[in-house]
Amino acid sequence: FTLDNLFLRELEEQDRSVDNTGLAVYGTITKSPVATGAELVGYRPPSSAVGTNYLSRPLTSSDFDLTGDWSITFWARRNGQTADQYSGFEIAEDDLTGNNAYQQIPFSIFIDVSGHTGWRGANVTGYQYDNLFNTQDVWKCITTVSKSGSLYIYINGEYVTVTPATFTNPSTPYSLGIFRFTYSTTRHDGRRHIDYALFRMSNSAPSSEQIKKIYEDEKVLFQENAACTLYGSSDAVTALAYDDTT
Q1: Which one of 9, 42, 121, 140 is at 20 to 30 Å from 161 when CA atoms are compared?
Q2: 87-101, pLDDT tens digit by residue?
Q3: Are 38 and 222 contacting, i.e. CB atoms less than 8 angstroms apart?
């Protein structure tokens, strides 16, 4: 499945965000199963190593308030494709004219081609986890929680570290960009060496116990032949059951 690059369009899938505002596709983004026979899919730019292929969603303080508690969780893997420099995501002003390093970028995470991963931002004491994704085709879950002037980082449901961070909401238009990472005024778009799945943002700060449960509940979706779809002739859900023996 490939989205064409003729014009800006939304993903051809149901949006599940609170205000029903989906990600827009710039260029081309492809998707493929997270494991052989699995129903869950991951996303990446296409075969070109560098391009203008990314996902974007405008943000406002009313739908994602950086000054309060918040969290971002996603799954990612290094897929073995070659690429230059960085993949990642950022919350940043749309126009970065005059930006100096991260001055106009409240928050971003990069994953370079070697698997090194870094947390950055205008008022973030940067943190880097070397070789986090050095093993190819291994999915990992990253949760970042902002609370009381600090960023708490969890990998696969386990607490890793905390780093000082404070945030303000930009006064100029800003957006979430996935498969986008900026240093100074250079935006690195469309690097294809990382797949993302189950990316979500929340204006709440989950507890360590909740983060661990999220990881344990979701990791089974990344196994071969894992099913995750409710089938039926109607979209009205009237009951839900869980079979804990198969």
Answers
A1: 42
A2: 899 999 999 988 888
A3: yes
